[in-house]
Amino acid sequence: MADKDKSMAGDGRKQRGRFFSSVPSGCICLLAVFLLFWLIGQKMGVAQMLNTIMHTGHDLLLNTVFYLMAICVITGAIGRLFVEFGVVSLLEKILKPLMKPLFNLPGVASLGAVMTFLSDNPAIISLSQDKRFSAYFKKFQYISLTNFGTAFGMGLLVMVFMVGQGFFLAPVVGFVGAFCGCIISTRLMQRFVIKAYPNYAHEYAVEHDGAVAEEKKVEEKSTFIRILNSLLDGGKTGVDVGIAIIPGVVIISTLVMILTFGPDAATGTYTGAKYEGIELLPKLAQKIDFIFEWLFGFHDPHLVAFPITALGAVGAALGLIPSFIDSGWIDGNAIAVFTAIGMCWSGYLSTHTAMLDSMGYRELTPKAILAHTIGGLCAAIVAHWLFVLCSLAL
C-alpha cells in the first residue's frame, strides 16, 4: 500500500512538472509583470502609479544620469591621461609588493586593479585576454581575477560622486573597507577553485614563457597633442560608460524607489509625483532591522535599498543617494558603507557571468558570486566599524 502511495505521488509530481514545462514562458512573464503592477497599482492607484514611474524616470535621467555621465567623462579623461604619461605604470610598480601577500596574485595584477578603479569591471577582462599578461598567472589565480577586478570597478567614479555630495573622510574609509572585501573575495574564490579543481593550483593559465615582453610604440608627438588626445579619447570612453548606465539607473532605480519611498509626506496620499512608492523594502527591512543596525550602522530601514541595487548596477545605486540625502536618512557612516559595498560589489550579479564566460570558466560563476557576496558584506562591516573608530578618535 505504501509503495502504491509513493508511486501515485511520483506520478502526480511528473504530471505537475509536465504541466509547468508546457506553459509558455511568455505567459509566466505576463503573469509576473501583471502581479508586480497590480501590487503597486492597487495601493497607489493606476493613474498615480504610471505618473510616478514617468516622473521618477524623467528626474533620474536629467538630474542623476547626466551628472554621473559628467563624472564619467572627467574621470575617463583623467584615467587616459594617467595611462599616457606613465602614472598607471608608476602605480603598478608601487602596488606590486602588496599583491602576493594580500591577494596571492602576481605583481602584474596591480595593473588590473588600477585600470578597473579608473574605469569599470570589464577592464580586467581586456587585460586577461592578453597572453603577455595572463602568462604570469596559475589557473586558480587567473580565474580569481574576476573577483579581484570587480572589487575595484568604477572605484574612482564612486569616490568622486561621494565627495561631490559633500563627504570627504567617509569615502576614504569606504575605500579601505572595499580593499578588505576584495582580499576576502579573491582569497575565497581561489580556495573554491582549488577545492573543485586541485590541478589548477599548479597549471598556468597559458603557456608560461617566464617573462612578459613589453611592446612600446614610440610616436613623435608634442606634449600638447598627447594631452589633447588623451583627454578627448578618455572623455569619449566616459560618454560610453555614461550611456551604458542609463538603463540601470532609470529602470532599476525607479523600481527600487517605488518599493522604498512612501506617499506624499505633506498630504499622506498618492499624487503621482516623483519618488512616491509603497515602502515595501523598508517594511521588510524592519523585520530584521537589528541586523542592519549592528552590522552596517544603518539607522533607517530605507537605506537597505542601496546594497540591494548595487548587486545589479552601482550606477543605479548611486542614483538613490541624492533622494536619501533630501530625506535626511544619510550620515557619514552610511556614505562609508555605501562606498565600500558599492565599490566591492559594483554590479557583480550583472557582470560575473559574462566575465567568466569570456575567460572560458562559465561553470565557476556560482562560486564567484558566492565569494563576492561574502566579500561585499565584509567590506561593508569593516567600513562601518572603521568609521566608528575614526569618529571616536576625532
Structural class: mainly alpha
Oligomeric grouping of the chains? single chain
Task: Please tell me what the overall shape is.
Answer: globular
Contiguous runs where pLDDT drops below 50 for at least 5 residues: 210-218
Total of DSSP H or I helical runs spanning 4+ residues? 20
- Element-level helix/strand string: HHHHHHHHHHHHHHHHHHHH
What fraction strand?
Answer: under 5%
Summarize the amount of helix as a percent range: over 70%
The CA-CA distance between the termini, in Å, is 75 Å
Tell me the total number of β-strands.
0
Query: Over the alpha carbons, how many angstroms does the gyration radius reach?
Result: 24 Å
Integer average pLDDT: 83
Question: Major sheet, described briefly?
Answer: none
Question: How does this model look, in words?
Answer:
With 394 residues, the chain is mainly alpha-helical. It is built from 20 helices and no strands. Helix 3 (46-84) crosses helix 9 (155-164) and helix 9 packs antiparallel against helix 18.
